[in-house]
Amino acid sequence: MIPTTGLLLTDLYELAMLEAYFASDMEDEAVFEFFVRELPVGYGYLVAAGIEDVAELVEHARFTDAELDWMTKSGRFGAAFVDRLRDFRFTGSLDAMPEGTLFFPDEPVLRITAPLAQAQLLETRIINLLQYPILIATKGSRCATAAAGKQLVDFGLRRAHGAEAGLLAARACYLGGFDGTSTVLAAPRYGIPIYGTMAHSFIEAHDDELAAFEHFALARPEGLVLLIDTYDTEAAARKLLGLAPRLAERGTAIQAVRIDSGDLAEHARRVRRILDAGGRSEIRIFASGGLDEHQLQALLDAGAPIDGFGVGSKLDTSADAPYLDCAYKLMEYGGRPRRKHSEDKSTWPGRKQVVRRFDENGKMAGDQIQLAEEPVQDEGEALLQPIIQQGRRIGRLGTLEEARARRSDQVARLPSALRRLDAEPSYPVSASDSVRELAREADAFIKQQRNPGQRELKRLNR
Amino acid sequence: MIPTTGLLLTDLYELAMLEAYFASDMEDEAVFEFFVRELPVGYGYLVAAGIEDVAELVEHARFTDAELDWMTKSGRFGAAFVDRLRDFRFTGSLDAMPEGTLFFPDEPVLRITAPLAQAQLLETRIINLLQYPILIATKGSRCATAAAGKQLVDFGLRRAHGAEAGLLAARACYLGGFDGTSTVLAAPRYGIPIYGTMAHSFIEAHDDELAAFEHFALARPEGLVLLIDTYDTEAAARKLLGLAPRLAERGTAIQAVRIDSGDLAEHARRVRRILDAGGRSEIRIFASGGLDEHQLQALLDAGAPIDGFGVGSKLDTSADAPYLDCAYKLMEYGGRPRRKHSEDKSTWPGRKQVVRRFDENGKMAGDQIQLAEEPVQDEGEALLQPIIQQGRRIGRLGTLEEARARRSDQVARLPSALRRLDAEPSYPVSASDSVRELAREADAFIKQQRNPGQRELKRLNR
């Protein structure tokens, strides 16, 4: 229904700038880097995600005939420009942190090095493909910390912002530590475990709640989870006690009940008591309904006997931080460092690498932002890896499972204060002397632009 | 890259329930309605949107062979069930408010009447296709009110949650009153006006800011907008005064400058003075950078001489209200009203219509939620229109331009207090006696389910 790929999925200014670059023969090598300026409030770290989709985008960037025809017919672009786009290919390189890597503000997560027009054109979709998965992988990770080993399932497709968001979210929260998703398409698309129970409408369509349970159990006996809060949560739990032996005779076990409304902790306690008293302590309790990492933590801190959680709207919309202060910025062009003058936010120029140091216990001890050409010292680990060179994949990005394990491993090695849901930013990130020197060089150039000298005044008055 | 359509774009439980419905021969007619429970804080109304995409979904709902093959291979579904889905078609009806209609909590925006399985299966994607466009059309409308006639352009694709969100947002904010978008694909896809300027990277890639302006002007002389805040906003404005006559000689006019950072009001004032003093009062000022409806209003209240705005992240992510408390609920099955018992939120059961009354000045005076079968009284206007019957389009949904005009007309007829950015919910919405009677009937049923009687106890003990 909605075409979501292709190179017209971009801001008009990218195409406008390309036309101007070509007209001015500006075809030198450019370096752009994606980074985040600031952590959302209470966040101690971010999780790299979306890299695989960016690599796909970069590797296969082509204009289709239909796109070029539209550009011609629109009357907005010169014929020579449109013709030149016919052969558009990405011939540069992509370096990035592997997915699942924890990162911090100002650190380049992904670097594109390519002729200026190529690196420029992809800006919009690169940000689009990175920002959201980073948000959701991070939120997934925060939920995983809060859930402390309890089952976590993404329920958010319906409230995600469109179809692609739902799919990206299913993948990203799994990367971040979720056990799976309710989104069916995520199984064939990403190989992610999928889970499902039943809706209130299923119960309500029956003239009898117990008949609804029984119908469902007969039709879908595997991994049976029954939704018990449609009419009276505790009454439904009691009805189950009568149903369970009848189902057992047919070889079907009730694995869990789901509670989706009301005071989840209180209902869970009462239901646990009913089930235990009825000899059904093996039936687990699954909770859902307006949850986020803070509520997971509050429920478990309160000792609620809940074994698993469905997390929906607040996960898939990253409700407390629906966007990141992030950018994909020109860092270098024609061998010279570049940056914008800024009244409130500055950017380290140049092509950069992030080197992470660990303490004797294997804990993360601090990162240094340095130039890509600087040697890696003190047994540090360089985080950005080469993925694409001369337009071709050379690096193995790794599987989703590997990324998931990386996130888990790195969170375990994070200073514990940064794992808290109300973390204060405190992870040490420094910039090397060479980066600082380059920033001074860039600023000298900016100063010259701010105070036009003789050469420019001559131009102005000629 | 990412498949975003198809009937596997759903929650697993929808398929699970379908299998159980078929196994139990539950094929009577069901009525589901989509509605919003509560307005986001400060919102006085919502704008209907997304209906066209839902109609497309419903009309063309089919399982592909690839989807069915996956279902079979997954081992999660019975062979008879998968086989039955091969002929899945929507044979029911869809009634909805036309896009651009203003609506309020508890009012059905869209109603599906169809055999139970058909209406159930589409739940997830229907919510997904309605919620987000409603949020963005509403935010667009709030921005349009705040902007009071100044130009508004959507800049949000890069921070939207995925590609589809970016496209849906471009369309929805245009419906809500925006003048256009920077998203190129929105032009061929929806016929929406597109706008573009240049990025800081374009300026920075040049060794000289003025040369950058000149290169751009020569390559893209139409609708020329120059970004002036890369190094020194006021210095750049002064440089333009020298450039403008040279461009004029070539027949090119600078239409506007864009300011994207710093104190936008203060920079706009200074730049306005520089341009006016230089005899360039025709050059307009366009502002962007972290804007939302509140900042638009504050800038204009402060008398900032800004002629147009680019609104990005906070629009496309609906940052202050990233999701709606909305639902697609079973209202009737087999001719009997249905609803869930609830500790905190209740739903009007039955198949319903919304009738709007107007006062003698044509202003909206109040809505009544009544049964679809009840006559429309007192010259009220029934808001839900038939769109699909027996699986086929019968109603004309109208064009995007018509929806845009409808939104504009209705906002003008809204009580003015509800147009405020900090509105208190106050629009009168009542439920008819028949709806209330049906709710009592549904509650009597719920009571019986909460306190199982003889019949059920017999089942339990048999």
Automatic annotation (TrEMBL), chains A, B:
Coiled-coil blocks: none
An annotated GO cellular component: cytosol
GO biological processes: NAD+ biosynthetic process via the salvage pathway
Post-translational modification: Transiently phosphorylated on a His residue during the reaction cycle. Phosphorylation strongly increases the affinity for substrates and increases the rate of nicotinate D-ribonucleotide production. Dephosphorylation regenerates the low-affinity form of the enzyme, leading to product release.
Residue span, Nicotinate/nicotinamide phosphoribosyltransferase domain: 151-330
Uppermost EC category: ligase
Start and end residues of each Nicotinate phosphoribosyltransferase C-terminal domain: 381-438
Protein's pathway: Cofactor biosynthesis; NAD(+) biosynthesis; nicotinate D-ribonucleotide from nicotinate: step 1/1
An example molecular function term from Gene Ontology annotations: glycosyltransferase activity
Keyword Translocase among UniProt keywords: no
The Nicotinate phosphoribosyltransferase N-terminal domain, residue ranges: 8-130
EC number: 6.3.4.21
Keywords for this protein: Glycosyltransferase, Ligase, Phosphoprotein, Pyridine nucleotide biosynthesis, Transferase
Pfam family, one: NAPRTase_C
Superkingdom as given in the UniProt entry: Bacteria
InterPro entries from the UniProt entry: Aldolase_TIM, N/Namide_PRibTrfase, NAPRTase_C, NAPRTase_N, Nic_PRibTrfase-Fam, Nic_PRibTrfase_pncB, Nicotinate_pribotase-like_C
Entry similarity comment: Belongs to the NAPRTase family.
Function per UniProt: Catalyzes the first step in the biosynthesis of NAD from nicotinic acid, the ATP-dependent synthesis of beta-nicotinate D-ribonucleotide from nicotinate and 5-phospho-D-ribose 1-phosphate.
Identification of the protein by name: Nicotinate phosphoribosyltransferase
